[in-house]
Write a structure and sequence with these properties.
Elements (H helix, E strand, L loop, with lengths): L10 H28 L2 E3 L5 E3 L3 H8 L1 H36 L7 H9 L6 H11 L7 H7 L13 H16 L1 H12 L3 H9 L4 H28 L4 H7 L12 H10 E2 L2 E2 L2 H34 L1
Antiparallel strand pairs: 1-2, 3-4
Helix pairs in contact: 1-13, 2-3, 3-7, 3-8, 3-10, 5-11, 8-10, 9-10, 10-13, 12-13
Length: 308
Amino acid sequence: MKHSERRPFPWHILFFLLPGLAIYLVFSVYPLLDTLRMSFYGDAADGGHAFVGLRNFVTLLTDSTWSDAFWNALKNNFEFFFIHMLLQNPIGLLLAVLLSLPKLRLRNTYRTLIFMPTMLSVVIIGFIWQLILSPIWGIAENFMYGIGLGNHFDSWLGKEGTALITLGLISVWQFVGIPMMLIYASLLNIPDEIVDASVVDGANPLQTFFYVKLPLILPTIAMVSILTFVANFNAFELIYAVKGALAGPNFSTDIMGTLFYRTFFGFQLQQGSPTMGAAVATLMFLIILAGVMVFLLVVQRRINRFQL
């Protein structure tokens, strides 16, 4: 019996992988590692950097000069995230279910129109809504008077209590198409035989959805949730485009992204500090990492057990 010849090493695979791997290492891994390294250094008297250990993190979390801004930004970021979780993802689920109805006409048109804002720049979206909601030259006030709700119009972007919620709603309007498309694709992948079997057993449309379709798309809903968490704690452009680096009024819309920008680069009277900015970025990374780990260790396990 002849021994099979040993296959040569597939060098061509490395040829195709190395360019992408090199780009990933240079523009993703190296900046991340260098940021982690820089967070352990502080400004020295000679203008350089000196190793200070965890002092930057202690200062950021306990010194009132830094900690007030940090805890305020963290609280606002969680509020921004919960707005998306409570509105964007349920609305995306509802739209996906409606678009998956077999008798719905013009579904492709609806899907395109809903997803279209997602393809636009966040900065453009911010400027457009800033113009629309402006009490001076915006059209929102006249529109609300036209439908009999003019007395409820207010300068929502100019008040501390409503500015962050308004920006959250703008973000939900722009990005609701992403969970919609992901859940819609998951619904289309459900075999027709399973749905037909539930109908034969006497299930109505609501029962079919809650007891057949929903359990099958739970992994997709969970993935959408963790993507929402990561995206919201990396958010920056919308707040900066509408409210600037100071995230006004009175830092009521300040989130981790804008805090990092001011800390690292400086703004107006605040002098930039790359080392403290690196500490803020490191804490952002750890918060995102902790959220992903909780999802993988707790939520994903329960979903797998539920499916079994």
